[in-house]
Amino acid sequence: MTATNTHHQASTPQHPEKVNVRVLRQDGPGQPTYWERHQVEYEENMNVISVLQRIAAQAATVEGNKVTPVAWDCGCLEEVCGSCTMVVNGKVRQSCTALVDRLLEDNSAEIELRPMTKFPVIRDLIVDRTRLFQGLERVKAWVPVDGYSDMGPGPRQSRKQQEQSYPLSQCMSCGCCLDACPQYQKIELHRRPGETEEQFEDRKREAYGSQFMGAAPISQAVLFNSHPTGNSLAEERVEALIAPGGVQACGNAQNCVAVCPKEIPLTTSIGRAGRAATVHSLKKMFDS
Ligand code: SF4
Ligand code: SF4
Ligand code: FES
Questions:
Q1: pLDDT value at residue 123
Q2: Cβ atoms of residues 214 and 163 within 8 Å
Q3: CB 180 within 8 A of CB 92
Q4: Which of 233, 235, 234, 270 is nearest to 251 (CA)?
Q5: Rounded to whole angstroms, how far apart are CA atoms 59 and 277?
Q6: Cβ distance 248 to 174 under 8 Å?
Q7: Contact 40 CB / ligand 2 (< 6 Å)
Q8: In a 3-state reduction of DSSP, which class is residue 188?
Q9: Residues of the chain with pLDDT under 70
Q10: Predicted pLDDT of residue 4
Q11: Does any ligand 2 atom lie closer than 6 A to the CB of residue 223?
Q12: Which end of the chain has fewer CB atoms within 10 angstroms, the N or the C?
């Protein structure tokens, strides 16, 4: 196979015959990274996942060298689960909805794929987003229920409230907002010799626990605090927001809102969280 990227001369002159793909690979946590070039046949309506499927099936570089299949993650294939998130041509986004035709319009020479930048790489394009889920735990991003028996209909929410909450409820925990945030710094720890899996998990939990949680958990705290049942944990959520790594760590760069695929009004949520945090801190001051 050769690395040429010839343009189709006959029936579909606007499309190349081949799609060149450059993938940033990493064989495991903490391993060195390296670029690898692949080439797949162009087909109509491809997305980055279908390109990756062909790359995995070929298991050979554009130079013809046999390689292990590139690893990536995906689930729903319709921008709902967030698991396929990666950096495509420099932009953090879901690869299942990254259409090849659109990408080639911007750069016909190649498509560049790399893992998200703020999360530890597990392998190739798969990252460990534990810290994001821990952030959701920090703010108790759930509605508490007492049991599984039928408790009848929940409290009603006004239309205005529903309209405010619905956009926030669309968060799929993809992590784009964290990856793009200048205040969200990558934390990557490695298991020490002799350390058990449990000790390593505890050490990670501690390291993540006081660092900036990022926009998604802040926005989820706002969502659940505005829920008529969820707000029974409102105080605990606000405590988490005023703790180190909470809403004060936001530098208001607004990158998060620019990259959120669900167009969640994150800066509005951050503003609401900030006001709730201020009111709570003042109340605590006067109560003490
Ligand atoms: S507004 Fe805050 S959370 Fe959003 S990107 Fe900026 S610093 Fe990060
Ligand atoms: S707020 Fe948007 S960018 Fe952030 S995790 Fe949720 S869906 Fe993804
Ligand atoms: S596979 Fe679920 S968002 Fe892409």
A1: 98
A2: no
A3: yes
A4: 270
A5: 52
A6: no
A7: no
A8: coil
A9: 1-14
A10: 43
A11: no
A12: C
Amino acid present at 175: G
Output DSSP code: residue 99: B
Is the minimum distance from the CB of 151 to ligand 1 under 6 angstroms?
Answer: no
Q: State residue 253's pLDDT score.
A: 85
Given this model, what pLDDT does residue 124 score? 98
Domain 18-123 = CATH 3.10.20.30: yes
Class of residue 99 by CB neighbours under 10 A (exposed 0-12, middle 13-18, buried 19+): middle
The highest-level CATH class for domain 129-144+155-287 is mainly alpha
Q: Enter the tokens of residue 179.
A: 């990856």
From residue 212, give the alpha-carbon distance in Å to each of 28, 101, 245, 246, 262.
26, 37, 4, 6, 22
- Residues 68-96 pLDDT 10s: 999 999 999 999 999 999 999 999 999 99
Q: What is the mean pLDDT of the chain?
A: 93
- In terms of Cβ atoms closer than 10 Å to its own Cβ (0-12, 13-18, 19+), residue 149 is exposed
Dist. CA 184 → ligand 1 center (Å): 8
**Domain map of the chain by residue range?**
18-123, 129-144+155-287
